Amino acid sequence: MLPFFVYGTLRPGEPNHDLFLRGRSRSEEPATMRGVVLYDGPGYPYAVEEPGGVVVGEVVTARPEAYGELLGALDRLEEYAPGDPANLYERVERPVALGDGSVVRAWVYVAAPAVAARLRARGKLIEGGDWRGR
User: Fold this and answer.
1) Which of 53, 60, 99, 120 has the highest count of CB atoms within 10 angstroms of its CB?
2) Where is 106: in which H helix or E strand?
3) What is the pLDDT confidence band of residue 133, given thresholds at 50, 70 and 90?
4) What pLDDT is recorded for position 44?
């Protein structure tokens, strides 16, 4: 039951936070993830794996009794299905640094390979890796 690293519309104060995380999370902590950059999407960001990049977000730990429901809800939100070539995002396990410097493994939704290639070619990079700072 890995926590989730959220960096866009699921962050506190963003539109999907209350819809998906309220009542399902046990904790939310500021965090950063290395090896990714952010690109602007149509109303939401994409994290694209890129050496040297850093993205700002939060690590969300689900309440154990809500974990399965939350995982399914987030997979549907991100239009992710394991092995589906039409995915916009892929859910991957990556290390994430918490504010105190400790590192945890977390699920994160990153741009699927075809989407990532399009974004690298002609997408709008979000400088600083912080969706809120765009």
Assistant:
1) 60
2) strand 103-111
3) confident
4) 92
The length of the chain, given as a count of residues: 134
In which element (H, E) is residue 28 found?
strand 25-40
Q: How far apart are CA 122 and CA 90, in angstroms?
A: 20
Q: What are phi and psi of 18, to 5 degrees?
A: -65, -35
Question: Which superfamily does 4-127 belong to?
Answer: Gamma-glutamyl cyclotransferase-like (3.10.490.10)
Write the CA distances from 103 to 1, 34, 100, 112, integer angstroms.
16, 11, 9, 24
Integer Cα distance of 12 and 3 in angstroms: 15
Give the chain's largest Cα–Cα span: 42
Burial class, 62, CB count within 10 angstroms (exposed 0-12 / middle 13-18 / buried 19+)? buried
pLDDT beyond 90 at 43:
no
Q: Can you give the pTM of this predicted structure?
A: 0.94
Residue type for position 104? V
**Average pLDDT rounded to a whole number, residues 11-36:** 94
